[in-house]
Design brief:
The protein is 51% helix and 20% strand. The chain has helices spanning 47-60, 65-79, 83-100, 107-124, and strands at residues 6-10, 20-29, 35-44. Strands 1-2-3 form a 3-stranded antiparallel β-sheet, with no helix packed on it. A hairpin with a 5-residue loop joins strand 2 and strand 3. It is elongated, with a radius of gyration of 20 Å.
Length: 127
């Protein structure tokens, strides 16, 4: 019975995954060369999928319709390939949340939405 088997995965731990679905294969081997393997899928969502998730979150919350409009505008701009426009709409969305933070939007909601919008801006490489 080996308490310290070796684990090798492909792609290896610490890899950066591309947008889409990647299969990871891992093999564990003990000192007696007994081995076991498993595959699992890693899904990395692109900007449009993440934006859709954020729209769903805002829609399901009791929040200002203006927030939803900014996200829908960003989605529309992204669909047209207008990254600069989408970035601008996301920046405005974050500004609206910041202005309402602690008033009509609680800390948990604001932190979640700002983090999501910031992550989308990073995927889009907004300046």
């Amino acid at each position: 019975f080996d308490l310290n088997p070796t684990l090798n995965c492909s792609p290896p731990a610490g890899s950066i995954f591309p947008i889409g679905i990647t299969t990871v294969n891992c093999v564990a081997m003990d000192s007696s060369e007994n081995s076991s393997s498993a595959d699992f899928l890693v899904t990395v969502k692109g900007a449009s999928e993440q934006l859709s998730d954020l729209i769903t979150y805002v829609r399901g919350s009791d929040l200002s319709n203006g927030l939803l409009v900014k996200l829908q505008d960003a989605s529309f701009q992204l669909g047209k390939g207008n990254i600069k426009g989408a970035c601008s709409d996301l920046k405005d969305f974050i500004s609206q949340i910041t202005a309402q933070k602690g008033k009509s939007i609680n800390e948990t909601q604001s932190s979640k939405m700002i983090a999501a919008a910031t992550r989308i801006k990073e995927v889009l490489n907004c300046k």
